[in-house]
Specification:
Number of helices: 10
Number of strands: 4
Distance between the termini: 9 Å
CATH superfamily of the largest domain: Metalloproteases ("zincins"), catalytic domain
Strand order of the largest sheet: 1-2-4-3
CATH architecture of the largest domain: 2-Layer Sandwich
CATH topology of the largest domain: Zincin-like
Radius of gyration: 22 Å
Structural class: alpha+beta
Strand content: 5-15%
């Protein structure tokens, strides 16, 4: 698969996965409403609740993430190549230059955050600045700017909120079903209504796990997309591939300030302690060797 086909494929897969989120939320809301007497009120409640939560997420989180990661504003005099590279690639990408931050950590890693093109930031560890060659660091920054340009950060904010919404709706539905809350004279709608409620009950049990798996799948697809788009932006897939090799072979890969809430933002999982195909389904990032192979094929 060529570079442009790879980018298009990853975009389609991400849209499909997000659509599944809304289908689950809609079905839970419909079944919940049916159980209480009005399916469409339940459906409307679920959609409105999910939309409000998603909109609220756009205006929170980025500054907290930078603070949690111990990121400090990059001094142009101290890190001239880093700042100039971010600004140069931003011009090439046709986006406003993000704010540049540095994380004092020996691990090789980086991440981007922000709700839109005008409110974005890129943070790079001192380990990446010191240990990567110029074309490798450029590849890493191009990857992060691709996240910004493709609104990946905004998408993942939506996904995280949707996972939370599904968990809340599932818990509320299960508690109401088990403890029999609601109208005693509610009309469920015959055998079809009973089937819908039964499916809703089963889905309410499984939905939080399904939602978590979808979130991880979306995260992995956006990493593939950023790799491909970053290679296109830098015009040097080899630079990013070599940077990923150094990250893979790093003997101290853990970023001390990282946590489970921010792990998906980094170019590679900063908390990784194990590898293997079985664990890929539960990983925020695709297998790094597969990412390297794809870049080398470009």
């Amino acid at each position: 698969m060529g570079l442009y086909e790879n980018i298009s494929s990853n975009k389609r897969k991400s849209i499909l996965l997000i659509s599944i989120f809304f289908i689950i939320i809609g079905f839970l809301g419909y079944a919940f409403g049916l159980y209480f007497g009005d399916a469409f009120i339940g459906l409307a409640f679920a959609i409105i609740f999910a939309t409000i939560m998603a909109l609220v997420s756009l205006y929170s989180g980025d500054r907290m993430i930078l603070r949690m990661s111990n990121a400090v504003s990059a001094d142009r005099k101290k890190y001239p190549y880093l700042v100039n590279t971010v600004e140069g690639l931003a011009i090439a990408a046709g986006i406003p230059a993000p704010k540049v931050y540095v994380i004092d950590d020996s691990a090789i890693n980086a991440f981007a955050t922000g709700r839109d093109l005008k409110h974005s930031s890129v943070a790079v560890t001192t380990g990446a600045i010191k240990r990567l060659k110029r074309d490798e660091l450029e590849g890493v920054i191009a990857h992060e700017l691709s996240h910004v340009r493709n609104y990946d950060i905004r998408m993942m904010m939506f996904v995280v909120i949707l996972v939370g919404v599904i968990a809340l709706l599932s818990d509320f539905f299960l508690r109401s079903f088990i403890y029999g809350r609601g109208r005693e004279d509610r009309k469920i709608g015959g055998i079809i209504g009973l089937i819908v409620i039964l499916i809703g009950f089963i889905l309410a049990i499984l939905a939080p796990l399904i939602a978590q798996l979808i979130k991880l799948a979306v995260s992995r697809q956006r990493e593939f997309l950023a790799d491909a788009d970053g290679a296109l932006l830098s015009r040097n897939p080899e630079g990013l591939a070599n940077a990923l090799k150094k990250i893979r072979d790093d003997k101290e890969p853990l970023v001390e300030a990282a946590n489970k809430a921010t792990a998906h933002l980094f170019i590679e999982n900063p908390l990784r302690t194990f590898r293997g195909r079985i664990n890929n389904l539960f990983s925020t990032h695709p297998d790094i060797n597969e990412r390297i192979k794809r870049l080398e094929r470009f």
